[in-house]
Structure to design on (936 residues):
């Protein structure tokens, strides 16, 4: 373990951060969304988008290789100076702001449904936002280290739930094997690569990770682990419930945990689910919120980001109230974000990286002669 | 109130942070060298000189040099020690026979702190009786006294009052003679003290049964007799302007990271207090975060445990007058270790560590979880258990929160009273406690029997935590979790665990992340930091200590297993 004066963290911390960022949606809508899009072939859709995201990542990481230790904002500045830096920074900030606000609302609404039916939504959101603000004040180092400790616990809890429902699984539920059809699966399904939209944060990590090799390894490991959890989650969900029921569940994994029956006494395992689910929500929201404020501070060239935490916290809290109800938030995520996030994560990032490489190449040619 | 305002201001307004460099324990190079910050060193030296100058100006009497006129010295020492107001300081005047002429002299020492036998037999008798014998011709009285008249092993010759007074204050005997511009300080310490006894708080079944006591040198000797290594350094530092409490910093020169040693020394030297009487005070003055509930310095009364940690590359601090030795740096997991862990086989050690971990979570969370389930998440309780809980709570008029706080506060009250109560009436308190907490409260329908079980199990859990200070922090945090649980059930508890976890990971103990080796992850997980590994597999010192020597045993430590030929 090498510790240096500037903030620097290990690969494992970064991998766990990205796993949580990508996989938290499994606790929310992901499994149901795959069924909505591809029918009983939702698990194949997950494999497909995992492969697509891996291919896109391989392409992007090649372009990033020439900018060791630089994040997306630095590279944007290299491409076109302050204006491009501002554009890139604002795109990332707005994307993360959208994610923070909608996921905050969705988690709070779901928590109300599952565990706190009598509490007002504002009260539940206030608890979440207080945790997020406190966490952000403690800084990136503690957020990353906490991920390294808690993500394996959350992952184990999630896998235990999946193991617990094995007796309820029925192989015939995956039939027809291609679900809604090949076009739905491989054509329209392509856009669902947005499930890996949170990989965007990987392009903000290079200054903290040191060498390019580290960034590369972190990306591969994060995509690998996340794919495993997403595939396992959607497959278990599809195998357990018949197709019509699969379309109706608001919280797929919660529904799975409710089925676990380990004898007469241990029949309410969903209590464990509430803990791991709420913890995943806290760390997801804190990480997204922190990187949002960090990106904004970096874009604006601010020396300190701490003074921004409270105002941004209030803004996210306020924005989370805009959707009128849970169903609106769910459709915002499943119908809008999950179809468009790839444009930011892969296309926008790709354009900046390609432009930066071209500029670097041009500069080199100028220098050579 | 002003503190609250300050906190509120800090939250709302932004103040540019002061420029300060945080200490991080870095790796040393292969030779064990590290670059030194020359400027820093010189700054520190300047600061020390300034402090010394300031002290000199403030107290001109002690900064003076010793006069060769014994009358002046006598008056000086009388003023310094407020003689005759001070009752326990003894000043004895006598004559030394030098070349047939009597030379006026006096000795000065504290009664009770010195050994009278040594003073009579090895200081006064030679000076008063043997000086007439003139065993060997000497020109100079100073040499005559030093070489022939003081047959004592530890005598220092001092030129200034400051050093002599320091020696006398710490059980020495000062000798002043006419015509000599130096004083002799003999180490004749001999105060009453406790012997080496069994540990009171860190009791083990397997392992040594010796504990530290209040005597600095006895304590350092207890470690030295276990670590027979010439590289074990016992570096003396005094802390406290008035109390000048002698402290010793122990480390193994060729194992401990030099940066760590320098940092501990820097922190000890920078402590500016008048009095420091116990290691508990010192701990609070050198720890990284004073607000965080858990200790970040390990205090132990077991010399074998300290020896083991020194051998792993840590630094220990012994404070004279304290039976608890401080060890730095420490991590959250090490606070859950016991001295016994090293002496028992690894399956037993892991069983104990698992039990302690369960105990920790029970002590911290059980009342909160009970409250959350009974107040918010009744549907999560298995039906049979729900019926049992409801039946037991049927006649209780209070809400669960009041019921729980009532019992927890009673329990804390009994625990505190149990420590403060005079010995003979201790058993009475136990009976009252058992009656209040148990039978009477239930019979009066104030609390439900199931809550008695919850509070009792929580109490037992807190007793299983091996570190005393950590036990306190768990008690405090338990109330925080009860409050959070009352506010939002499981969500509140999760929020509490989240903030506590982040707070813990943001902490450092002497440059080492407090949650190492899990957050940040290092390669120590399999090396016995979290769970105990088999003895033969514990080849490495903890990675996060960045020690000069990484290996602490051979790869094949069980040489007999390799076979004679291959060996």
């Amino acid at each position: 373990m090498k510790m240096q004066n500037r903030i620097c963290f290990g690969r494992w911390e970064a991998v766990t951060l990205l796993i949580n960022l990508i996989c938290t949606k499994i606790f929310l809508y992901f499994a149901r969304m795959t069924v909505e899009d591809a029918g009983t072939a939702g698990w194949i859709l997950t494999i497909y988008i995992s492969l697509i995201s891996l291919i896109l990542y391989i392409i992007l990481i090649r372009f990033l290789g020439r900018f060791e230790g630089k994040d997306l904002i630095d590279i944007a500045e290299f491409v076109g100076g302050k204006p491009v830096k501002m554009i890139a920074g604002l795109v990332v900030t707005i994307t993360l702001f959208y994610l923070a606000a909608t996921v905050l609302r969705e988690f709070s609404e779901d928590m109300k449904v599952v565990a706190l039916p009598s509490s007002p939504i504002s009260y539940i959101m206030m608890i979440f936002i207080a945790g997020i603000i406190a966490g952000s004040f403690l800084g990136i180092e503690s957020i990353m280290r906490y991920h390294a400790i808690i993500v394996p616990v959350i992952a184990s809890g999630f896998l235990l739930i999946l193991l617990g429902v094995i007796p309820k699984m029925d192989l015939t539920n995956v039939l027809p094997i291609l679900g809604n059809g090949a076009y739905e699966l491989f054509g329209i399904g392509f856009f669902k690569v947005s499930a890996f939209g949170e990989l965007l944060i990987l392009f903000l990590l290079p200054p903290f990770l040191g060498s390019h090799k580290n960034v590369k390894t972190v990306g591969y490991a994060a995509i690998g682990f996340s794919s495993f959890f997403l595939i396992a989650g959607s497959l278990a969900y599809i195998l357990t419930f018949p197709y019509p029921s699969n379309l109706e569940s608001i919280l797929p994994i919660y529904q799975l945990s409710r089925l676990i029956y380990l004898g007469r006494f241990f029949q309410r395992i969903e209590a464990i689910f509430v803990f791991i689910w709420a913890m995943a929500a806290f760390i997801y929201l804190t990480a997204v919120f922190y990187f949002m404020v960090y990106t904004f501070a970096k874009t604006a060239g601010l020396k300190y980001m701490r003074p921004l935490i409270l105002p941004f916290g209030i803004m996210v809290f306020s924005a989370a109230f805009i959707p009128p109800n849970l169903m609106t938030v769910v459709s915002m995520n499943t119908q809008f974000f999950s179809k468009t996030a790839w444009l930011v994560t892969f296309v926008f990032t790709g354009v900046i990286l390609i432009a930066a490489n071209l500029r670097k190449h041009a500069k080199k040619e100028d220098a050579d002669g | 109130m002003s503190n609250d305002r300050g906190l509120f201001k800090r939250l709302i307004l932004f103040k540019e942070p002061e420029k300060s460099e945080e200490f991080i324990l870095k790796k040393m190079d292969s030779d064990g060298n590290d670059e030194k910050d020359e400027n820093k060193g010189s700054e520190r030296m300047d600061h020390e000189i300034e402090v010394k100058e300031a002290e000199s100006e403030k107290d001109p009497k002690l900064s003076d040099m010793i006069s060769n006129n014994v009358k002046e010295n006598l008056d000086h020492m009388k003023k310094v020690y407020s003689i005759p107001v001070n009752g326990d300081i003894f000043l004895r005047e006598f004559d030394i026979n030098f070349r047939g002429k009597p030379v006026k002299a006096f000795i000065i020492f504290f009664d009770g702190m010195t050994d009278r036998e040594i003073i009579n037999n090895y200081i006064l008798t030679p000076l008063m009786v043997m000086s007439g014998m003139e065993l060997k011709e000497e020109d100079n009285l100073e040499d005559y006294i030093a070489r022939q008249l003081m047959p004592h092993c530890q005598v220092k010759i001092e030129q200034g009052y400051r050093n002599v007074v320091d020696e006398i204050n710490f059980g020495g005997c000062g000798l002043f003679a006419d015509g000599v511009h130096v004083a002799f300080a003999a180490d004749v310490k001999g105060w009453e003290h406790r012997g080496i006894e069994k540990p009171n708080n860190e009791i083990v079944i397997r392992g040594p049964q010796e504990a530290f006591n209040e005597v600095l040198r006895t304590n350092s000797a207890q470690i030295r007799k276990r670590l027979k290594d010439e590289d074990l350094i016992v570096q003396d530092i005094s802390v406290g302007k008035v109390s000048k409490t002698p402290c010793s910093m122990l480390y193994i020169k060729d194992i401990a990271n030099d940066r760590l040693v320098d940092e501990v020394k820097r922190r000890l030297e920078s402590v500016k207090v008048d009095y420091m009487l116990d290691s508990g005070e010192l701990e609070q003055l050198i720890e990284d975060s004073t607000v965080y509930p858990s200790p970040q310095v390990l205090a132990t009364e077991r010399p074998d445990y300290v020896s083991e940690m020194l051998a792993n590359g840590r630094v220990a601090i012994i404070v004279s007058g304290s039976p608890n030795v401080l060890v730095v740096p420490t991590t959250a997991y090490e606070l859950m270790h016991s001295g016994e862990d090293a002496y028992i086989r690894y399956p037993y050690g892991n069983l104990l560590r698992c039990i302690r971990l369960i105990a920790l979570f029970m002590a911290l969370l059980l009342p909160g979880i009970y409250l959350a389930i009974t107040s918010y998440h009744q549907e999560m309780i298995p039906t049979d258990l729900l019926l049992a809980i409801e039946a037991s709570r049927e006649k209780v008029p209070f809400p669960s929160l009041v019921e729980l706080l009532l019992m927890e506060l009673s329990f804390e009250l009994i625990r505190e009273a149990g420590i403060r109560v005079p010995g003979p009436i201790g058993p009475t308190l136990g009976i009252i406690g058992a009656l209040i907490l148990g039978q009477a409260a239930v019979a009066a329908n104030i609390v439900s029997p199931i809550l008695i079980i919850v509070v009792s199990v929580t109490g037992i859990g807190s007793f299983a935590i091996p570190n005393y200070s950590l036990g306190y922090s768990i008690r405090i945090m338990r109330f925080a979790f009860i409050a959070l649980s009352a506010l939002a059930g499981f969500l509140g508890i999760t929020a509490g665990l989240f903030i506590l976890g982040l707070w813990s990971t943001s902490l450092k103990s002497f440059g080492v992340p407090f949650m190492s080796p899990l957050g940040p992850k290092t390669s120590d997980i399999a090396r016995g930091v979290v769970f105990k590994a088999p003895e033969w597999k514990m080849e490495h010192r903890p990675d996060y200590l960045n020690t000069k020597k990484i290996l602490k045993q051979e790869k094949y430590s069980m040489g007999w297993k390799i076979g004679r030929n291959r060996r």
Notes: The longest helix of chain A spans residues 72-114.
